[in-house]
Specification:
Blueprint lengths: L5 E5 L4 E5 L5 E6 L4 E6 L5 E5 L3 E6 L2 E7 L7 E5 L6 E5 L1 E2 L2 E2 L3 E6 L4 E6 L11 E7 L5 E8 L2 E6 L5 E6 L4 E9 L2 E2 L11 E5 L5 E7 L5 E6 L3 E5 L5 E6 L5 E7 L5 E6 L4 E6 L12
Antiparallel strand pairs: 1-2, 2-3, 4-5, 5-8, 6-7, 8-9, 10-11, 12-13, 13-14, 14-15, 16-17, 17-18, 18-19, 18-20, 21-22, 22-23, 23-24, 25-26, 26-27
Length: 287
């Protein structure tokens, strides 16, 4: 934000929260369900991906989501007015298909946003996920790509011509090249959803959310390894920046010249800041 604060979601606490430059925090709104990703949008509103809620498991040094919440009643996209804390449901379905577990979102410069729906997992089955595009005024939502296995982080290339999606369970990064807002140029078989594979990681690693730099590099929060994986648009893995937290879940850029990376470390429940060697990409509705 312009005052140096960072606004983030707390999934288990069910809040949209502001963290001040001094490290103090204050609740902006209580959304219920499972607020999973947030972005600043038109009119100074926050747009929140709400996954509908998780069941949680407490382990030594770690509280982690394990399944769909017992009281789950569907996923949705919500707006939050930071002045009043008012929460409003903007979308809860696409056509005849209810949203299951909206996860992350990014605004373009055409008055709309792309968001991922990771789906929900249960004891014996799980949902397919997808990539969607919606207008900020609530008037239109379309399916861009489906099915995707656990789509999580989403971001746009600097020229706005490609949208990137990180898959959690496969640790794969996909690109969907755009012909128009919300319209992707699909590839055929063997791509299962029309996306173009950018990169995949070996070993037991999992992807979470992401951010893009001004130069176009994709910085993906990497679970288990506990790092930010930096991937060039060509697919080359440039480096991994360790964080020391196995649940490294998200990254954004701010500070002078957008050269500070703010990273959420969910195992320890921390927000940290670190210097970054290149500036982050300016978002469509910068704080």
């Amino acid at each position: 934000m312009a005052d140096g604060s960072v606004v983030l979601v707390e999934i288990e606490r069910q809040t949209l929260t502001r963290v001040g430059a001094d490290g103090g925090s204050a609740v902006i709104a209580r959304t219920g369900g499972g607020p999973n990703g947030a972005a600043l949008g038109p009119g100074g509103l926050f747009y929140v991906c709400n996954n509908g809620g998780f069941a949680w498991r407490q382990e030594p040094g770690l509280l982690r989501p394990v399944a769909q919440a017992a009281g789950y009643d569907g996923g949705r996209i919500e707006t939050v007015d930071p002045r009043s804390g008012a929460v409003r449901v903007l979308y809860d379905r696409c056509g005849g298909h209810p949203l299951r577990g909206p996860n992350d979102l990014v605004f373009d410069r055409h008055g709309g946003f792309y968001f991922t729906d990771l789906g929900k997992a249960r004891a014996r089955d799980r949902d397919h996920g997808g990539l969607y595009y919606a207008l900020a005024d609530g008037s239109r939502i379309v399916e861009v790509a489906y099915p995707i296995l656990t789509p999580n982080g989403v971001g746009l290339s600097p020229d706005g011509r490609s949208v990137y999606v990180a898959e959690t369970e496969t640790a794969r990064l996909w690109a969907f090249d755009l012909e128009a807002p919300g319209v992707a140029r699909k590839l055929g078989f063997p791509s299962s959803h029309g996306g173009r594979l950018v990169a995949g990681l070996g070993g037991f690693q999992r992807f979470d959310s992401l951010a893009v730099t001004e130069a176009g590099n994709i910085c993906v929060a990497t679970l288990i390894t506990g790092a930010i994986t930096v991937i060039a648009p060509s697919g080359e893995v440039l480096r991994q920046v360790p964080t020391g937290d196995v649940m490294t879940t998200n990254i954004c850029f701010g500070g002078a010249g957008r050269r500070t990376a703010f990273v959420t470390l969910s195992a320890g429940g921390r927000l940290v800041a670190m210097d970054w060697p290149e500036p982050g990409l300016e978002l469509a509705y910068a704080g």
